Description:
InterPro entries: Type_ISP_LLaBIII_C (IPR041635). With 432 residues, the protein is α+β, with helices and mostly antiparallel strands.
Amino acid sequence: MAKIYHAHLYGLREDKYQVLKENTVNSTDFHEVNPRSTFYLLIPQNTDLFGEYEQYFKINDIMPVNGVGLVTAKDKLTIQDTSEEIWRIVNDFISLDVETARKKYDLGKDSKSWQILLAQADIRKNNLIKDKITPVLYRPFDLKYTYYTGTSGGFICRPCDKIMKNMLLGENLGLVVNKQVKVNYSHVFISHYSIDFHTLETANANPYLFPLYLYPDSDKAQELQQEKRPNFSPDFLKTLETKLGYLPTPETIFYYIYAVFHSPTYRSRYAEFLKIDFPRVPLISNDNLFRQLAEYGEQLVQLHLMTSPKLDPPLAPSSKRGGVEAPLIKGGWGDLSFVSKSDRIVAAGHPKYSKGEVHINKQGDCFKGVPEAVWNFYIGGYQVCQKWLKDRKGRTLSDEDILHYHKIVVALAETIKLMQLIDAAIPGFPIE
């Protein structure tokens, strides 16, 4: 059987050309690789560590009903900041002829998957009602609104209704993770609502939503009398019950998983495997540790949904202007405030960070007291504190916007603390 060898060359293009020019196959430092199922990767892997990691439950085997985020195909039209704005646009959109709508909303050419005429017909045939306006988690901490009919190839290109309807039919929690990543693993978040195809990343978009609960299909008579049920496989629940000696509540299990995925050691130890497939969950028999991690996970969920009491007052918006500092947050991360010296518009080329200050324009409008660790914190492919402001280029920040940004800063600061506590609680990997 033929052997497979691997070598990797780092550096600038010209440097690589020079190395290739000066070397041959015989002088290159190759390493033999032994591809293994199920991926048969042609790169070196830590086989001992993979054997350990392989014993864990893969998240899609734990929560078998899952799917990618909805694909709108035309965000400028279908995604808006407020429910009032999407309602206004939908009403206007269906009143226009095709070419006028195309020009007004900069929709470009039709494609096989999205056409103006079909989008308009989808809205009309499903009756134009406000109940179809739904929130969607567009980016981390960035909730927007769309008009949701659930029809593929309609107003929304691919709504993934089989999954997303579970977030619309009743109260729910949705775990958001990527199947594959190309950078350091931080592709984990939470949602009460549907998610966008780019919720966690733009360049390598493949976020999957795992709803905690599955709701009966209102279109199927045989399911009308059923209640919601947890989205956990019988095999997983049986194994967990055997490990712990009892079966925790669905929420507790969910929080435990969320905590494990936020362990810095978990992310670094299994980094090469987290890049190629869904994350896996170690099951433990230590009930005290399970409960402790679930508690930390619940706190993380509350922070990321912005329902945590840690985000309650003294947070309060202030409309003071003219360079008057209005401290909005006081705590272990220092005073957090917004200095307003002009019109609060997020200018091109901003935000810019320097020594605890996030400047949104050249006139001096800035957030003060933002820790560097928070500014540099990533969720998925997004540097959160930068991304949220960058997406508001040209906009005048309202008091509510400023308050929301402060809450993001506090939520991330507390997330960093909790991630450290999670690692401190875990005695080591593999955990049992």
